[in-house]
Amino acid sequence: MNELKIPKRLTTALVNSMTAGVVPRVGLEYIAVGRKPEVKSILRDMDNIAEGGAAFRLITGRYGSGKSFLLQMIRNYAMDRDFVVADADLSPERRLVGTKGQGLATYRELMTHLSTKTRPDGGALEAILQKWIAAIQQRIMVEADLRPDDPTLNERVELDIFAVTNEMQNLVHGFDFAKVLAAYWNGYKLGDDDRKAAALRWLRGEVPTKTEARKELGVGVIIDDDNWYDYMKLWSEFTAAIGYKGLLLFIDEGVNLYKITNSISRQSNYEKLLTMFNDTMQGKAQHLGIYMGGTPQFVEDERRGLFSYDALRSRLIDGRYGSSTLRTYTSPILKLDMLSYEEILILLQKLRDIHAFHFKYEPQLTDEQLVAFMQAALNRLGAEELLTTREVVRDFMDLLHTLHQHPEATFEQLLGERAEAQPAASKGADEQGDDLDDLLAEFEL
Predict the structure, then answer these.
(1) Stretch 193-209: mean pLDDT
(2) Which residues contact 329 (CB under 8 A, 6 or more apart)?
C-alpha cells in the first residue's frame, strides 16, 4: 500500500465514482484491468487516424460490462497522444437526427465536451483557436525576427491563417467554416470580444437563425440537424491542419436509438449512422475516429436494432470465419465479455489499496476474503450471467466504507448478514463456486 503514489484529487474521483457506480473521468489507469486486445486494436486505429485515415467502431456489451469504462479510458489515451476528443451520451433529446433539433443537440454536447491534453475537462474550443494563433505568432516572430508590436506581424499571421482556411474551403461547408474562423481571428486581432463571441457561438452550433448568422458574421448558413456531422468532418481536418493528430468522437448509450418508438425516425438515425460508417470506412473522412457504445440488443435485434437496417446489417455482421474463441479485433464491432474472475479479483485488490491509501489506513482485507466476497456475490445473484462488474464494485465499495467507518464490524459478520438477507443460491451458482475454488488455489490463498 505504501508504494501507491496517487494524487488526492484522483483518489477522490475514483472512490466517489466507484461508490456511485459511474465511470470516473480521471485516474482510470490505476484501476484498469483486462481489455488488452481491445485497447491494442483501438490504439492501432489511432495510428491510422494520425496518418490521415479514419475509424468507426461499435463497442458492445451488456449493462455493467465495461463499455463506458473502455470508452473513457480510450478517450484519456487519445488526449495523451495529442488528439482532440469529444464525448456525448445519446438520450431522447440527443440523437443523430431528429425533427426537434436532437441531432444539433448532440453536436452541441460534443462541442461542450471538446477536450485536449491541456483542457481535459471540456470547453477546449476557444483554447484550441488561441493556441493555434499563438503558435503561428511565435513561429513567425522567430523565423522573421519580429517583435510582438511589429506591424507586419499581424499581416504575416493572417497569411498563415488564410492558408489553413483556404484548404478548408474545398470541403463541404468549408467556405463558411473558414469564414467564421477568419472572423474569430479578426476579433482576436482587433480586441473585438463581441466578434469573437459571435464566431464561437456559431462554431458551437448556438446561432439559431441564418439571418442572425448573416448579420453577425456575414455567413448565410448555420450548423443544424442536417449538416452537423459535415462540420465534425471539418473539425477533424482542421485539428489535424493546426498540429493535432485528429479528432475522436465518443458517443455512448447508443441503445437510445434502439428505443425510438417511431420506426421512420429510428430508420433516419440508422441512415445517418450508415453515412458515418461509410465515410470512415471508404476514406471520405480524414483524421476522424468515431466510437459508439451500445448493448448487443441495440446492434443485433433484427426488429428494431441496427440489424433491422439491411445496409448496416450486411456491413456489421460477423464474417464467416470469426467466432467467440477466435476473435480478430479488427471488425467494426468490438464485443466485450464480462471480466474474468481473475480480472475482477485484481480490480478488487486495486480498489482495496486505493481506498486504504485515500483514507490513510493499512489495508485489512486479505485476498482470500476478496474471493469470499466474490463467491457471496455470485451466490446472491444465482448465475454467472447476472454478475456484472458494476454491481460487484458498488457492493465492494459499500463494504469498504462500512468496515472503515465501523471498526467494530468484521468482514465475516457483514458477509454473513448479507447472505442471510438474500435467497439461497441456485444450483447454477453452486457450480460456478467450483471456478472460484480453483481461483483460490491458483492464487495460493
Answers:
(1) 97
(2) 37, 38, 40, 41
Take residue 192 and report the three cell numbers written for it. Answer: 473585438
pLDDT reported for residue 376: 87
Spell out the residues 6+ positions from residue 106 whose beta carbon is closer than 8 angstroms to its own: 88, 90, 94, 95, 96, 228, 251
Torsions phi, psi for 301 (to 5 deg): -65, 120
Among candidates 173, 169, 200, which has minimal Cα distance to 184?
200
Counting Cα atoms < 13 Å in the Cβ hemisphere of 122 gives 12
d(CA 166, CA 265): 37
DSSP assignment letter at 251: E
Written as one letter, the residue type at 206 is: E
Residues, the chain: 445
**C-alpha grid cell, residue 319:** 464474417
Q: Cα 393 to the chain's mean position, in Å?
A: 21
> Would you say 129 and 119 are in contact if contact means Cβ atoms under 8 Å apart?
no
Q: Which grid cell sits at 90?
A: 445519446
Sheet of 288-294, strands arranged across: 84-89, 247-252, 288-294, 54-60, 333-335
Q: Report pLDDT digits (tens) over 110-142.
A: 999 999 999 999 999 999 999 999 999 999 999
Report the interhelical angle of 193-203 vs 174-190 (nearest 10°).
150
pTM: predicted TM-score of the whole model, two decimal places: 0.86
Nearest to 350 by CA among 369, 338, 337, 367: 367
Q: How confident is the model at residue 12 (pLDDT cuts 50, 70, 90)?
A: very high
Amino acid code (one letter) for 383: A
Instruction: Residue 329: name the closest of 50, 52, 35, 98 by CA.
Output: 35
Q: Strand, coil or helix: what is 291? A: strand
Cα 60 to Cα 6: distance, rounded to the nearest angstrom: 31
User: Identity (one letter) of the amino acid at 62?
Assistant: R
CB-CB contact of 38 with 336 (8 Å): yes
**CB-count burial class (<10 Å; 0-12, 13-18, 19+) for 174:** buried
Answer yes or no: are the C-beta atoms of 159 and 148 closer than 8 Å. no
- Sequence-distant (6+) residues with CB within 8 A of 102 are 92, 93, 94, 95, 96, 225
The C-alpha cell that represents 377 in the structure block: 456475490
Amino acid at position 408, single letter: E
What sign has the CA pseudo-torsion 375, 377, 378, 382? Answer: positive
